[in-house]
Write a structure and sequence with these properties.
Chain lengths: 264, 259
């Protein structure tokens, strides 16, 4: 019995330690964010670097986002059509696809994909720059590494995530159209009418605000993980995994709270 | 010109520098020797202000580098050129972009002009026709040369070398030593090198300091160090596993018995 209590006690302690560690890390990430914001507003601006990162994050992620969005839109139409048919509401498929893509799936799926692709790349790149002393080298060459490396990634995340999410919205709705009209022979006019009648502009822009937040979060978390990597190749691996896990969790958790705040 | 004044630095529980003090005069070439993990790199990182001392001061031209505001710190850093242990070339950039990095950050020169200067600096370290290569295409010795060219490109007053010959074959290492001596004579720079390569130390140093247990325990000319009676320094420069310096995780008794 005592042993059981002991074990339980130990588990509780280790749980709170973990919670404490996450809280501490979140605090550090916020400090890192403030340092980045400070460098962001201070001239000179890293225009060329920002542009390069926007290409990397945005254009580079577009193919995966396209595939994800089109299949999500398709499967969503497929499931809602067969489901809604049970109570004769299959004409609403267009509405459901449009609303869920713009409010939820567009931003969240884009966020998750970018965190797995661009976020991982950021952590790995900055991490290997850290362990090979390239970040120290920047310092000795009188260049602020936060300004040079992190600000461009942060700006790229902020700008490109909404852009990608908007693409995902549109592509998802088109995917839904293929299935509803092509597979289930609903008239194309009905699909579009149902899409546009109930869709509000707030659905779209609030979704994009969420995407913007996700973009910033992915960039800062991944850059932070890479920037403070230690321990050689293994450390870079850990940083990369950590970046993807932490930013995915942040996206999923913050999504609930942002949604409850934005879509009242 | 460079002065460390009772510098203390710890990483978590690991106390690395315990009241380290030394001074380097303008134009002097100082080598700091010490075992692996003795905190030699930490000294260099304090001199450029990447690390800040827990206690004590690091003075560059009589200015406490830890007290500087960000802008002044980066201005002061322009006085430095640093060669990193693994060269730390930016692998996303070509050789000439690496060498011209500090110049391109100034924003006053056109890319063509920067490339021209980069090629000239590369020639100074004995490298020709490599400006368009990527760092991944270079050997270890070549990387160090490019790193050296990058360190001198903005004409710094102080050069810092982090283990300039480590990981190189003896002939390439000696070529790097020659290059360091040659640059010192040509550019009249002050330099601090850290190394555990005694051959290199004797060749490039005006004076040698030994770091042991977080303190500078001896400083002297290469000749003085070579003929020292201090048992710790003696053991280090002769490279013996037997003596007052214990090799971590190794049973010294057994080493003696076997010998």
């Amino acid at each position: 019995m005592i042993r059981l209590i002991e074990r339980f006690g130990r588990a509780v302690i280790s749980f709170f330690r973990k919670v404490g560690a996450v809280a501490e890390e979140t605090g550090r990430i916020l400090l890192f964010l403030f340092a980045t914001l400070k460098q962001m507003v201070r001239p000179p601006f890293e225009t060329a670097n920002i542009f390069r990162q926007m290409l990397e994050v945005g254009v580079g992620s577009l193919p995966v986002v396209t595939v994800t969005a089109i299949f999500t839109g398709m499967v969503f139409a497929l499931q809602t059509y067969t489901g809604f048919k049970r109570f004769g509401a299959e004409t609403l498929v267009g509405t459901v696809v449009a609303m869920s893509m713009t409010r939820e799936l567009g931003p969240v799926l884009t966020g998750l994909i970018v965190s797995g692709r661009a976020g991982a790349a950021m952590a790995a790149e900055l991490g290997s720059m850290r362990v090979t002393e390239q970040i120290d080298a920047l310092e000795t060459l009188a260049t602020n590494p936060v300004k040079y490396l992190v600000v461009p990634r942060f700006v790229a995340g902020l700008v490109m995530l909404p852009a990608l999410a908007l693409c995902a919205d549109i592509i998802g709705i088109i995917g839904g159209y293929f299935v509803t009209v092509g597979l289930f022979n609903t008239s194309s006019a009905v699909y579009w009418k149902q899409t546009w009648t109930y869709l509000e502009s707030a659905d779209i822009y609030n979704g994009l605000i969420k995407a913007c937040f996700f973009g910033g979060a992915i960039s800062i978390i991944s850059s932070y993980k890479g920037f403070y990597t230690s321990g050689g190749a293994e450390g870079v691996g850990k940083a990369t995994t950590g970046a993807v896990v932490f930013s995915s969790m942040t996206i999923l958790i913050s999504d609930y709270f942002l949604s409850s705040w934005l879509f009242r | 010109m460079i002065r460390l004044d009772e510098v203390y630095k710890a990483f978590n529980a690991n106390q690395v520098l315990i009241g380290t003090s030394f001074a380097v005069k303008k134009g002097e070439s100082r080598v700091v020797i010490g075992g692996s993990g003795s905190g030699k790199s930490v000294i260099l990182k304090h001199i450029v202000g990447i690390l800040k001392p827990d206690k004590g001061r690091v003075l560059i031209d009589d200015v406490d580098i830890a007290s500087l505001k960000e802008h002044d710190l980066y201005e002061t850093r322009k006085k430095f050129g640093m060669l990193f242990q693994m060269a730390a070339l930016f692998d996303s950039m070509s050789v000439w972009e690496n060498v011209g990095f500090a110049l391109s950050r100034k924003g006053t020169l056109k890319p063509d002009e920067i490339k021209e200067i980069a090629v000239e600096k590369l020639k100074l370290v004995g490298m020709v026709n490599v400006e368009n290569l990527m760092p991944s295409e270079l050997s270890g010795g070549m990387k160090k040369r490019v790193g050296l060219a990058r360190a001198i490109a903005h004409e710094p007053e102080i050069l810092l070398y982090d283990e300039p010959t480590t990981g190189l074959d003896p002939i390439t290492a000696d070529a790097i030593n020659d290059l360091i001596v040659d640059l010192r004579e040509r550019l009249k720079v002050t330099s601090v090198a850290i190394t555990h390569d005694m051959h290199s130390s004797y060749k490039i140093a005006d004076s040698i300091s030994m770091l042991y247990k977080g303190k500078i325990i001896a400083t002297g000319t290469p000749d003085e160090i070579r003929h020292t009676v201090d048992p710790v320094v003696r053991q280090f420069i002769t490279g013996s596993a037997v003596g007052p310096i214990k090799v971590e995780g190794v049973n010294n008794e057994r080493t003696v018995n076997r010998a």
